[in-house]
Amino acid sequence: MAPGLLNISNEDDIPSSTLAGSRLPISDIKIVGFETYDLRFPTSLDASGSDAMNPSGDYSAAHVRLTTNTDLTGHGISFTIGRGNDLCTAAARAIAERLVGKTLGELTADMGRTWRYLVSDSQMRWVGPEKGVVHLGLSACVNALWDLWARYLGKPLWKLVCDLTPEEFVACIDFRYIVDAITPEEAVALLRGLEKTKAARVRDARSNRAVPAYTTQAGWLGFSDEKMVELIRSNLAVGMDKFKLKVGGDIKDDRRRLKIARDTIGHDRMLMVDANQVWSVPDAIENMKKLVEFKPVFIEEPTSPDDILGHAAIRKALKPYGVGVATGEHCQNRVIFKQLLQADAIDYCQIDACRLGGVNEVLAVLLMAKKFNVPIVPHSGGIGLNEYTQHLALLNYICVSGEKSLLEHINSFSEVLKHPVQTKDGYFVTPWEAGYSVEYKPEAIAAYEYPSGSFWTSEKGLGIINGPKA
Fold it and tell me: Any idea where the Mandelate racemase/muconate lactonizing enzyme C-terminal domain is (predicted)?
């Protein structure tokens, strides 16, 4: 059965509130246009998101809204941190044009072919290829298409994917460039091997015990010690007992902050650190040796995200100390992930829902990580990014890895979303709304569209626009 004609006979699995109304045949749903929005949220005002490489970002979204000949719409984003979001929005516009006039049926009948079609505009591809601004624009469009498909079926994105047969799942992926790491036949066999135990993992999803959470919200580099301690304690009080702290400033300051954090968290709870690419390979090794006493599970982005052999060297040096290496939030495509895995360069594979080219490419990386036996720990953050990654962690657990994916939780500006992520007792609450969970409230778009939104024309907004460029 082609993915575009997915069997939806098991609708009784889905709460009735999420089901779509009467549907036209999928072949009659036509994309007739799109809208794009450059949305920027002023996280720089309170230092949320601050780290060693990015001291003062305004978390942003290049937002695409696909419109159809019905009232059905598809919403997609790509995540940035401020300036340059307009470039990603422009790239998304150029790529979205390739969807107009096509039906949802033809696009979803062979999602692997559709993905390759969207990356095959040779003139746009020249300014990538499959990386950077163009790839970020692509991800917004691909994510919007998957959102549209899931809304049509009345399913959350994670369940749409989990309901695919192994053959349908694999058909969503463009295997060009990765067949030397995993073939379609190997991928189908891998997925089939998990079919018999899938129902038990779906039960975990139903009981909100499928995706364990950790928080970075207390660990931003720009926060005072007092604020860090206050946020750690407030998270512990609601059952959030795993934390990540930013490092990469002065190493003495890193040590001081980690000691305070460890004393507050306790010495048996999970702690991770993130240097956001700021170190050279030798510096990463030497600095982490000075931090091992605080028992970090991993160091995230210890050096350039493109330095595969550098990550391998850092991993080899830190292995005797029990510190793993994680990377992926700036990993530009499935090819770099392939090489990181082939080179034994990472202990944790950090897929990003927007840096990669949307859901299709994420599925490819999940399969490679499973074959190489490297656990998935998605990168979150962003205002909307966490809403995406909850779905990716769920589908990875249920149908790809069979192992729970620890997932980062950040809740800045969650009020601007119609369906913000929820956590309870240290786990993500499973989303059941139809689609991919990222839809902004109209009033949020009116306030934060850049530069004409009501916030950006206010005194505070103009202060950021006209202020120093960090």
Answer: 225-321
Q: Is 452 exposed, middle or buried (0-12, 13-18, 19+ CB in 10 A)?
A: exposed
Angstrom distance (rounded) from CA 193 to CA 188: 9
Q: From the candidates 75, 159, 246, 311, which is the catalytic residue?
A: 246
Residue 246 annotated among the catalytic residues of the structure? yes
pLDDT digits (tens, 9 = 90+) for 398-435: 999 999 999 999 888 999 999 999 999 999 999 999 99
**Dist. CA 405–CA 201, nearest whole Å:** 12
Q: Is the peptide bond before 156 cis (omega within 30 degrees of 0)?
A: no
Distance CA 201, CA 207 (A): 10
Structure tokens, 272: 């991770």
Measuring CA to CA, how many Å separate 119 from each of 20, 80, 124, 129, 342?
30, 20, 8, 8, 25
Whether the upstream peptide bond of residue 451 has omega within 30° of 0, thus cis, is yes
Active-site residue among 75, 379, 391, 409? 379
Cα four-point dihedral sign 241, 242, 244, 245 = positive
Q: Residue 21 is encoded by which pair of tokens?
A: 């109304």
- 234-252 pLDDT per residue, tens: 999 999 999 999 999 999 9
Residue among 193, 348, 197, 200 nearest 270 (CA): 348
